[in-house]
Amino acid sequence: MCNNTIKFIGGQMANMTLSIPNEFKQKMDKFAWLNWSELAREAFAKRMKQLELLEKLDKDFEKSELTDEDTLRLGRKLKEEMWKKYKEKGW
């Protein structure tokens, strides 16, 4: 199992106000034991990590000579191979 928990240790933190629909808040209130602020921080950190990776990949591949068709073909092949791998494991 992969542990993707992100912990923030020390340092100053800025405050942020987030607006959500009332219905959403009512549902959240049913799980008052959850630390929604921590959950939000982790979600923001995870998304930021994804965006930074995409930014890096864009920079790394900006001079690539692969066409869109090439990348789609490679993506399909990778997806097919991953499917085979997981199917063999019984997933």
Keywords:
0% strand; mainly alpha; 91 residues
What does the model show?
The mean pLDDT is 88. With 91 residues, the chain is mainly α. The protein starts with 21 loop residues before the first helix and ends with a helix. The protein has one domain. The radius of gyration is 20 Å and the shape is extended.
How are the secondary structure elements laid out?
Layout: H1 22-29, H2 36-61, H3 68-88
- The residue-averaged pLDDT reads 88
Per DSSP, the total helix count is: 3
Order of helices and strands: HHH
CA gyration radius, whole angstroms: 20 Å
Broad structural category: mainly alpha
Distance between the termini: 15 Å
Helicity range of the residues?
55-70%
- Largest β sheet strand count, sense and barrel closure: none
Q: Compute the number of strand runs.
A: 0
What is the subunit organization of this protein?
Answer: single chain
Strand content: under 5%
Sum up the overall morphology in one term.
extended
Tally of separate domains? 1
- Note poorly predicted spans: none
In short:
60% of the residues lie in helices and 0% in strands.
